[in-house]
Amino acid sequence: MIVVSTDGSALGNPNGSMGWAWADHSDEIGTAHEHNHTGNADAGGASNGTNQIGELCAVLEALRAHPGSEDLTIETDSQYAINCSTTWIHGWKKNGWKNSKNEPVKNSDLIRAIDAEISKRKGSVKFVWVKGHAGNAGNEKVDTLARTYAEDCAKGAKKGYLPLEGWKSLLSSPYASGTDIPDEAKLLLENKISNEEYHANRTVGNNTNPDFGNSDTTNSNTANSDTTNSDFPLDNLDNIENTENTDSQDLDSQNTNPQDSNSQNTNPQDSVTNNYKSIQGLSVSGILKFTPAPATSPSFTGEARFISGRINISGYVQPDGTLQLEPTSFYIQTSSNNR
């Protein structure tokens, strides 16, 4: 079985520079059986975009890099990518690729392409949700690759690199204005070069895989490509678009879709806060370490950065009042006015 990790990233999401990446959980490369690539990872991005486009690009490129009859498992921290690939797509097809508001499905070029790759693949495709930024070696690697490419695009150090369907989804989105389209991508869009020519020798990561044998996948959920329902945790809030800028509230195309009960008109932040209350006299204090640190950002000014948000803590408080906090997600406070 082949196992890969995928991830998408966007700086200033939505419409900051974006990145995507996949990485093998082995060092199999180019000529190896079932591996249609020259390195054990690949990454790309663009000057504009969204995290969701990046997530879908990563899944699509991972599928195309691993054709054949061997079973494929894709590990991702994106509920959106999993549901687009396995659940919501069934209703969209029945509804002529319109959502529940009878509007065109966003990023449909990418989602259609993913569906086509899964359908024609002889081997099975299984999606596994993993918690982001929680010590999973594969997730950490692709997060770094995707984020670094996005940062390089923002600085102009690297050119945009997306699959054809990624460019189409981006250019048909509200975030297309000002997009820097490299000459190679223009040739691809104009059908003057093939996908194979565009992708030639673009993979990365040869001999740089971490020890995936110790990956923490205890908090994972799985979904096969023919799944009709899902119960995956929300993506990290610092990596998703504001609710009004995504399809998360109108992704389902029919009221009978099993996802309707938990995917429409849902503010992700509410799901974090609504079931909790303050306990009088109970408080927490100490020093938290944020990763990545502000000093690693290309926009770092040398000063401390104000941040507002919350974390979810689950564990045993020792008799002395201490709790060992493992790496966990930080939920940034968002506002519909912050676009």
What can you tell me about this protein's structure?
This protein has a 6-stranded mixed beta sheet with strand order 3-2-1-4-5-6. Residues 207-219, 226-274 and 335-339 have low confidence and may be disordered. The protein is 27% helix and 12% strand. Helix 1 runs parallel beside helix 4, helix 1 runs antiparallel to helix 6 and helix 4 (108-120) packs antiparallel against helix 6 (164-171). It has 10 helices and 8 strands. By secondary structure, the chain is of the alpha/beta class. 41% of the residues are buried. A hairpin with a 7-residue loop joins strand 1 and strand 2. It has one domain (2-267): Nucleotidyltransferase, domain 5.
